Amino acid sequence: MFISYLSCMPEILLLLNVIILQIVKHLRKEQTPKTFASISKVFFVLTLISSIIFYNISFSKNWYDNTEYTTLIKSILVVFVLITNGIVCRWFLNQNYNSCRYYQLLSLILIGLFGIISCQHLGVLMACLSLVFVSVAMISENNLDNPIEKIKLRQFNMINNLLLILFMIGGIALIYEKTNTLYYMQLQNYYQKQDMDNMDKLGMLFVLVPILELIGCVPFHLRRLKIQKESILPVASSLSILLSLTGVAFLLHNLSQIFVQSVEVYNEMIFVCGITSVIIGAVGSSSGRNLRQIFGFLEVFNLGIILLLGYPLQNINIEVIFSYVLILILMLMGGYICLYGIRSRGNYLQTMEDIAGLGKVKPYLAGSLLIFCCSFIGIPPFLSVWGNFLMIHQMLNEQHFISLGVIFLFLIWVAYGILNIIKSIYFDKRTRNFERVDVGVYVGIVMTVVLMCYGIIWQENIMDSLATIMRQ
Amino acid sequence: MEITPQMLPILILIPFLGFIFLLLARDDTRYSVRNIIMATEFIICTNIIMLGRFFSQLDIGQQSVQFLTTYKLFEKPKIELAFGLDVFSLMMLVAIHVIFLISIPFSVKKNAKVMSCLSLLMLGMMTGFLVSADIFSFYLFFAMPLIPLFLQIGSIEEVRKSRWMYRFFIYNFIGMIILFLCVCALYHYQKGENIIFLRGVARLRLTHWQEYWIWGGLFVAFVSRIPIWPFHYWIASMTSAIKNPLIFIQINLFPLTGVYGLIRFCPKTVPESVSYLLIGLEIIAAISMLFIAMIGLINKDNRYKLFSFITVYYIIYLQGALLPTSRILLNIGYSLFAFLIIMCVLELLAAYVREEQQKYDLHLYGIICNTPRLGFLYAFFTLSAVGFPLSALFVNNFVILSYVFNYNFNLGIMMMLALIIASASLLKELYLLKDNRYVQPGSVCIMDLSLKAFYGLSIIAILLLISFFNPLLILGV
C-alpha cells in the first residue's frame, strides 16, 4: 500500500519544488537565479528518477494509472525541461531575472501534464487541464514589461481558459448525465454496450476541444502563437514542446484506445483540424518575420500532419505517429537550442533582421540552425526524411492521397519560409553584434544531433520498444 | 591494394572528411588560402587515384553494375542501400573530379574556406549520386546537393537581389519532393523487397494508374533539373549573372543529375501506359532546345552563350537516353565525358578573359588576339565544343544523332538545327574575341595565361585528343 502511494512521488516532488522555492524566496536574503535553478534541477532529476523507478506502480488504477507508456512521455518531458534549464540558467543569471516564479509555474505545469497522461477519470482530467491552462496563462504573462500588453494577454488568457473549462464541464456533464460515471474503464464498458446518441457525441466533442487546445492545432493555435511571440524564449520553447507532446500522447493513447466507440465522432473533426493546420502552418511559416512565430507555425504544420496520420482513429498506427512526434520534438528542440545561442546585449534575438549575417560571425551556430531548419522541409540526410517516409508509407496504406497531396503542396510554402531564414543568416548584412555562445548551447546541439543519429542507427530498437510500450 | 566493393563508400567519405578538415582550417591569411586550395586539390587527387584503382579492376564488357555492395539503413520498414559502379558512372565520376580539380585553383580566391568546403561537399554528394545503385540512395544524393549549391548561389549579390535563387531552390525542391513521393510509392507498392535497384524499376509490376503517376512523377522530377522551357529564362538569367566559374560549373552540373537519372531509371522501353508521356517530353525538349539555342545566338553575354550551348547538349543527351535502345548508352557516356571537361575549361577561360577585361577596362572584341597561349586554348576548346574532330564529342555525337534520325527524322532535324545554332553562337564569340580589327597598335593588352595554367590546360587538351574515339583509352582501360 505504501509503495502504491509512493508511485505519486514524481508529482509530490514537483509540488515540493514549488513549496521549497517559495520558502527559499522568503527566507534567503541573497537570492540569485542560480539558487532557484539549482534547487529545481535537483527536483527535476529526482522526478525523472522516481518516474522511472515507479514506472508501473499506481496507487489506484481507477484514478491514476502509471504504465511504461506514461513513463516514457513523462521522462521525455522532464529531460526536455532539464536541457532547457541547463541552457537558460546562465541567461537568468546575466539578466538578474528572478526565476523563482518561472520554475514554480513550470513545476505546476508538469504536475498537470503528468496528471493528464496518467489519469483515468474525466474529473481528474478536467482538474489537470485547468491547472495547466491557468499555469500557462500565468507563466506567459510573467515576464512582460509593457503593462498594456500584459493586460491584453491576461484578458485573452482569461477568456480562453474560461471557454475551455466551460467546454470541459459541459462535455463531462453531458457524459455523466447519460452514463453516471466518469471513470475511463466504466465509460469504455458502457459505450461498448450502448450506441451513442447525439448528446453523447456532443459531450465527447466538448471533451476533445481542450485537448486540441493543448496540442495547439488550428483553430486552437492562437494562444500558443501569441505566447511564442511575446513570452521570453524559455517559456516559448518549453510550452511549445511540453504541451504538444502531452496533447498528442493523450490523443493517441486515451482517446483512440479507451474511447474506442467514440472515435467515429472524432474522425471528421481531426481531419478538418489536420488539413487546416497544415495549410495555416505552412502559409504562416512562409510569411512570418519572427523566428519563434515561424517555429510555432512549423509546429502547427507538423501537428497537422500528425493529426492526418491519426485519421481515421480506428486504423491508427501509433508507432508511426509516435516516431513522427519524436522526430518533430528533436527538430524543435534543436531549433530552439540554436535560438538560445543567438543573443545580443543580453537579449535573445527573434526577428529575421536580428539574425542577419549570423553565418559570418557564428558559423557553427548558423550551420546548426541551417541543419535543423532543413530538417523541417525533409531535405536529406536529416532524420526528418525517415519521418516523411513513414508518413507517406502510412498514407499510401490508408489511401489518403488528398491529404498527401495537400501536405506536399504546402511543404513548398514551408520551404519558402525556411529559405527566408537561410537568406537572413547567410546573405544579409549584419546589423548587430552577437554575444559569445554559451557552451551549454553547443552541448545541447550536439546532444540533439547525437539523438538524431541514434534515431537513425538504432531505429529498429526504437520502433520495437515503441511497439512494445504502445501495445500495453 | 586489393579493391573490394566495401571500399566504394570511401569514395563518398573522402570528400566529406576533407570538408570537415577544411571546416576547421583558418582562412585569415594569404598563406592559408594557398593551403586550403592545396588541401582541396590533394583530397580530389586522392579520390581520383581511388577511381583509377576501381577502373583497373572493372570489367568493361559487362554492362551491369559492378562492385555492388549493400548496407542496411532501416530495419522497420526494411530498407537497404546499394552502391555500385559501371563504366558509365565511373566515367562521369572521373570527369567530375577532373572538373573540380582544374576549376578550384582558377576560381577560389575570395572566401577560400567557404568555397572549398562547399565544393567538396558538392563533390561528395555528386560522387554518392553516381555510385548509388538503388532508389533510396539515389534519392538521398539527388536531393542533398541542393543546399550547398543554394548557399553558393546566394553568395552572389546580383542573384540575391533579383531573388532568382528562391526560384531556383523552389523549382528544384518541387522536383525533389516528386521524386521522393515516387520512390516511396515504388517501395510501398513493391511489398517484400528490401532493395529496389535502379535497373529493376522498369520491371516492377504496377497497375495502370500506379504506372501513370509514378512514371509521370519520375519524368517531371528529372526534367526539373534541366532548364527546360518555360522555366529556362530565369535559370539562364541567374546562370549568366554568376561570375565565379566554379559556381557556374557546379550549377551546370546540376542538369547532369536529371539526365543521369533518366538514363538509370528509364528502361529500353517505358511501360506502354505511359509511353505517350514520352512524346510530350520530346516535344518540350525540342522546343526548349531550339528556343535556348536561338536566345544564345542573339545574346551578347558569353556566359549566356555558354549556358545555351550546355543546355542544348544536355537536352540532346536526354533525348538520346529516351531512345528505345541501350546501344548508344556508352556513346552518350563518352560524349558526356568530353562535354563536361570542355564545358568546364571553356568557362574557366571565359572567366579569365572577363576578369582581365574588367581589370584593364578593355573592349571584349579582339581581346585575345595578342595572347597566344590563351588564344590557342580558347580556339581549341571552342572548336572541340562545336564538334570539330578534336575530342570524343565528334564521333559519339554523330552516333547519337544518327540513332535519333533513325528513330524520328523530324526530331533529328530539330536537334541538328539547335546544335548548329548553339555552335554558331560559340564560333561567333570566338571570332569576335580574336578579331584584330578592333585592336589599336600599341594599346593596352590583357595578360596572357600563366605558363603553369597553360601547361595544365594543354594536358587536358591532349587528353581530349587521345580520347577521340573512346575516353576509356586515357583512363588506361
How would you characterize the overall build of this protein?
The complex is a heterodimer of chains A (about 475) and B (about 475). The mean pLDDT of chain A is about 85. The longest helix of chain A has about 35 residues. Chain A is globular, with a radius of gyration of 22 Å. The two termini of chain A are about 25 Å apart. By secondary structure, chain A is an all-alpha fold. In chain A, helix 2 packs antiparallel against helix 5, helix 12 packs parallel to helix 18 and helix 14 packs antiparallel against helix 19. Chain A has 20 helices and two strands. The two termini of chain B are about 20 Å apart. The mean pLDDT of chain B is about 85. Chain B is mostly helical and about 475 residues long. In chain B, strands 1-2 form a two-stranded antiparallel ribbon. Chain B has one domain. Classes of the chains: A mainly alpha (about 475), B mainly alpha (about 475).
Task: Outline the fold blueprint.
The complex is a heterodimer of chains A (472) and B (477).
Chain A: H1 2-6, H2 9-27, H3 33-53, H4 68-95, H5 100-118, H6 122-141, H7 147-179, H8 184-193, H9 198-215, H10 222-230, H11 233-257, H12 263-287, H13 291-309, H14 318-341, E1 343-344, E2 347-348, H15 358-361, H16 363-376, H17 384-398, H18 401-426, H19 439-457, H20 459-471
Helix pairs in contact in A: 2-3, 2-5, 3-4, 4-5, 4-11, 5-6, 5-11, 6-7, 7-9, 9-11, 10-11, 10-13, 11-13, 11-14, 12-13, 12-18, 13-14, 13-18, 14-16, 14-17, 14-19, 14-20, 16-18
Chain B: H1 8-23, H2 30-56, E1 66-74, E2 79-85, H3 87-107, H4 112-131, H5 135-143, H6 146-154, H7 157-162, H8 164-189, H9 208-223, H10 232-241, H11 245-265, H12 275-298, H13 302-322, H14 329-360, H15 372-386, H16 392-407, H17 409-434, H18 451-466
Antiparallel strand pairs in B: 1-2
Helix pairs in contact in B: 1-2, 1-4, 2-3, 2-4, 3-4, 3-11, 3-14, 4-5, 4-6, 4-11, 5-8, 6-8, 8-9, 8-10, 9-11, 10-13, 11-13, 11-14, 12-13, 12-17, 13-14, 13-16, 13-17, 14-15, 14-16, 15-17, 15-18, 16-17
